[in-house]
Structure formats: C-alpha cells, structure tokens
C-alpha cells in the first residue's frame, strides 16, 4: 500500500471525487507502460493505481483516514486487490469506473422504410393525395410488444441477476484485471423470456400490410422524398417506429418536359402558317386535373407572329410548375418548329416557284450564320421577325 495515497496523487485530503479522477487520469496517462518506456514507469503506475483505488472507494478511504488497512491485510495493488480494468480505460477514454452500463432495453427504435410512388406530371406539379399499401413491422397484437406468451412475463436472468453483464477476471502483470461483458444467457437484457409469444417468436412485432394516406405537396419532382414520421418499421420489443420516406418518380408527359420549374413543349407549324402568322390553342398542364371542382384555366391562346422562324420560343410567364417552397411558378416555354413540305403536286410547286420568283429567290446562295451572335445581332434578328 502506498505510504500516502494523497501525496501519490498530488491532491489535498479534502479532494472530491472529480479532483481525484482528474489527478488519476493525468498520472495514469503519464506512467502507463504502453506510453512510457522508462524502467520505473510500471512501478509508478501501480502505485498511482493503488492510491486511486483507495481514495475512490468511500469505505477504503474512510478506513485509511482512520489509520487502518483499507485492503484488510490482503496487500496492495497487484496483491489480490482486484483493480478494475475500467479504471485504466477511464484514464485514457473518459469511461465510467464506477460500474458498467447495466442491462440494455429490449425496446429499440425501428428502422426507416422507403417506398416508391409513381405520379403523373400534373399530380407532381399541383400536389395530390394518395393511399399507399406498405409492408412494415407493426406491434404484435398478441403480446403487445413484450415478446412473452399470453399469461407469462419475462423473468430476471439467474446468470447476471438482472445486471445484463457479467464480470470476467484475468491475471496479468498489472494484477487482476476485471472486464464487464454482456451476459451471454440473456444477451445483455437482464431478463429472459421463458415462454415466448407464439405469433412473433418473442420479437414483439410482426410484418403486416397496412394502408396509409400520403399528402404530396405541389412542386415535387423525381427524387423528392416525403417524410412521414413514425410510419416506418416498429422497433424490436415494440419500440418506437422509424420514419417512412415516400420517394416520388414522375412519369413522362405526352406534351411537356420539365426543367426545374419550367415546362417545355414543341409546336409544329406548316411553313405557310409560320410565314403568314396564326393562333394556336395550347392545352396547359391544368387540363390533366381530374376534378371539375377546381376552377382553373385549362388552355391558352398562343399568337404566332408572321414570319416566325423555326426554333423561336414563346414564353408564357407563370404558367409552369409551382415552387415547392414558395408562391412562385415557373414558365411555359413553347418552341415553334416550322415544317417544310416534302411532297408537292404540280399546282403547289408552280405556286411556290412563282413566290420564289416574286421574292428573287430562284437561286439563293444561302447565308452563313456566325457561330456566336453578339447582343446587338440577336436584337436585330428579333426585330426582323
């Protein structure tokens, strides 16, 4: 036994438990043989450990302060004192030297679940409500999550006496090293179910198909996940359920393609309509909505100016997809594609040749366009249309 454990740890006689622990950690890190190769470090480490074993135990500290032998004549550290390995681990990792963690709960949080939901473009754009069938673990209705058969209940483990862990002792150059391990008999729960529930085999949960209603907000897109808290898998032992994530996949649309909040479509016009100008009735995405209760504009008139060139875009502001987080909407971009006739009868060919003669375009050389037009060039072309 150290002559004076207070002097060994360098603390006052009225030092509290936190002060003792800090002093022990500092000295143990300094003199532990794994980090200090000095020949006297091992003996110093034993002395520090024995001093802390005395002062960290209220009864041994009281006996020492009264002038008695705190080890009851059994010797100091390494002489049967039974120093706990958790004290050494505490010096390096900040553990809890005053015992183990105790039994672990059978109830644990369940896992999150993921399901896929296929939507039409209008449903994703304007929101919808769907009923889904999901297969998840639910609380067993027979044992209500306890895992025990009806009329029975879990009993205290006789191996660990409800502590959930057992102590293993191993001798080494440091003396007796005690380690705490989960009890193999009860798997660390501290209780054993002698008569498990027949329906869930003691797990406290069963797999079941159930229906849930999912409200999809407006503006979602492929890859968006809607979180439903507490609708996932129920945990073992009837523990709290995880979350359910509904991942949205949007089907291709017959007219529109989506880019962010904007909707794009292409309208083909004959050459004569593009040259003379025309008006087209364009169905909006709202036309796909099933209900008649929503009073919305389902189509819009697009005026095509005379002389419109192929590739010209008409932008309909605020007719696109609503923002998922706000009140704004994207645009509808209508691209005009001018069709050149490839089959002409004699009369049509004669009229086109007459038109070409009137416009002095019988043998045009063609105009090579620059690869990149500047701002003024683009503005000039816009005014020409």
TrEMBL record:
Report the cofactors. Answer: Zn(2+)
Q: Which GO cellular component terms are attached?
A: cytoplasm
- Report each CXXCXGXG motif repeat as a residue range: 140-147, 157-164, 183-190, 197-204
Q: Where are the zinc fingers (CR-type)?
A: 127-209
Query: Cross-referenced CDD domains, in alphabetical order?
Result: DnaJ, DnaJ_C, DnaJ_zf
Where in the numbering of this chain does the J domain appear? 4-68
Q: Which GO terms describe its molecular function?
A: ATP binding; heat shock protein binding; unfolded protein binding; zinc ion binding
Tell me where in or outside the cell this protein is found. Cytoplasm
Supply the alphabetized keyword list: Chaperone, Cytoplasm, DNA replication, Metal-binding, Repeat, Stress response, Zinc, Zinc-finger
Major place of residence: cytoplasm
Give the co-factor note.
Answer: Binds 2 Zn(2+) ions per monomer.
Where along this sequence does the record place binding of Zn(2+) 1? 140, 143, 197, 200
Q: Which residues form the CR-type domain?
A: 127-209
Please give a single GO biological process term from the UniProt record.
Answer: protein refolding
Q: Which Pfam families match?
A: DnaJ, DnaJ_C, DnaJ_CXXCXGXG
Quote the record's binding site residues for Zn(2+) 2: 157, 160, 183, 186
Quaternary structure, per UniProt, is: Homodimer.
Its biological purpose is as follows: Participates actively in the response to hyperosmotic and heat shock by preventing the aggregation of stress-denatured proteins and by disaggregating proteins, also in an autonomous, DnaK-independent fashion. Unfolded proteins bind initially to DnaJ; upon interaction with the DnaJ-bound protein, DnaK hydrolyzes its bound ATP, resulting in the formation of a stable complex. GrpE releases ADP from DnaK; ATP binding to DnaK triggers the release of the substrate protein, thus completing the reaction cycle.
* UniProt note: domains: The J domain is necessary and sufficient to stimulate DnaK ATPase activity. Zinc center 1 plays an important role in the autonomous, DnaK-independent chaperone activity of DnaJ. Zinc center 2 is essential for interaction with DnaK and for DnaJ activity.
What's the protein here called?
Chaperone protein DnaJ
The organism encoding this protein is: Nocardioides marmorisolisilvae
Q: Which gene encodes it?
A: dnaJ
